[in-house]
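Continuing the series of single-chain predictions for the mutant panel. This is the parent chain; the variants come on the following pages.
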Amino acid sequence: MLYIGIDLGTSAVKLLLMDGAGQIKKIVSKEYPIYFPHPGWSEQKPEDWFAGTMDGLKELLAGCEKEQVAGISFGGQMHGLVILDKNDQVIRPALLWNDGRTWEECDYLNNVIGKEKLSEYTANISFTGFTAPKILWVRNKEPENFARIAKIMLPKDYIAYRLTGAHCTDVSDASGMLLFDVRNRRWSKEMCEICGVRPEQLAKIYESYESVGTVLPEIADELKSSEASDEETEETEHDQENSQKRDPNAESETGTSTETPDEKQTSEDSAKMTEAKQQETEDAKNSIESSTQKDTDNGGGQN
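Parent structure:
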């Protein structure tokens, strides 16, 4: 059996294929851009993550039996905010873990709500990189986008959602959102109220070792069709290479496929000289015959 690991990093998605014994078979990396709209801001497009992941999967699985793949595991950058609308469309670029725009929201959480309360609710205090202050920033600065939110998720969980249709996360990543009640291993009701988040907008929480679902049929079909497309491309390239190959014997017989312009001119001049010499020979022969005939005629008259 084969297993795939997907690590969604800040600069690239890394994919690894290994067998059941832990032997690495192949590693693929696909880069994508990062955007800095303002000083201290850091964003990426979730669609770029997914496109890179799909390209990476196609390359990773090229030449192997896809039916042997028994599981896919996800990991990656934490704390980032991905928000989808009711049609599962990305509302805005993701705010990343290294985005520092939420200093006002962090000040509100740490000093107005209070660090003691935050620790009681989540076993943590607020930092600009965490997800909860990012949600508050969208509510405060982009209320029209906040009103459209149907799903809230982390970067790696967006990839899992696109591949499986499961809106999920794990307890480890959830604990870095400042929305998770670590003691009771569930979403914090208090923090959801503070951030204006409804429980149905948040992912279902799993332990890191649990299975969350299976690959969607359309994803499996696309990965299979990419293999067929690769085979057709290889066959076409092979046919083109064969059609471009020349028969060395045919070239030596015709002498045209590799003849240069200078060689062609020399060949034509040589042919003209040969024709001229043949004509001179023919003229000389005719002249001799004519002279012999004349001598014969004269000799006959003397006799």
